[in-house]
Amino acid sequence: MYAIIEDGGKQYKVEAGKKFAIEYRDLEAGATIDFDKVVFFKDGETIKVGAPYVAGVKVAATVQGKAFGPKVYPMQFRRRKKSKRRIGHRQSYLEVQITAINN
User: Fold this and answer.
1) Cα 4 to Cα 14: distance, rounded to the nearest angstrom
2) Order of strands, edge to edge, in the sheet holding 46-49?
3) Residue 23 CA from chain centroid, whole number
4) 55 close to 103: Cβ distance less than 8 angstroms
5) pTM attached to this predicted model
6) What is the separation, in whole angstroms, between the first and last Cα of the chain?
7) Alpha-carbon dihedral of residues 44, 47, 50, 55, nearest 10 degrees?
């Protein structure tokens, strides 16, 4: 059994017990999130496709904690001006674990 959910303008394929990172929200570890924007749902031979979302299917998840993406170094450079600037950025994510897919 798996589902494809939409969150933050992105789509994720989720299964029970799977961990993944979503856009950061200010939530504590152990909090629960319900995703109701389910685009696709498959349970054995049963397939439900939403237009745009599948009615009656929800995905429950628990927050594991805050996570960070890789460090990137964007560079600003102006030719012939002896001017350059290097800054670092690290994107924050929220790591969640799927507990149940309710249909």
Assistant:
1) 6
2) 10-14, 2-7, 38-43, 46-49
3) 6
4) no
5) 0.82
6) 11
7) -60
* Nearest CA among 88, 92, 91 for reference residue 74: 88
Q: The tokens 């397939």 sit on which residue?
A: 47
Distance, in Å, from the CA atom of 37 to the CA atom of 10, rounded to the nearest integer, reads 11
Q: What is the pLDDT of residues 47-93, one digit of tens each?
A: 999 999 999 999 999 999 999 999 999 999 999 999 999 999 999 99
Spatial separation of the C-alpha atoms in residues 69 and 71, rounded to whole Å? 7
> Using CA of residue 37, residue 56, residue 100, residue 48, what is the dihedral sign?
negative
Write down the domain spans for the chain. Answer: 2-102
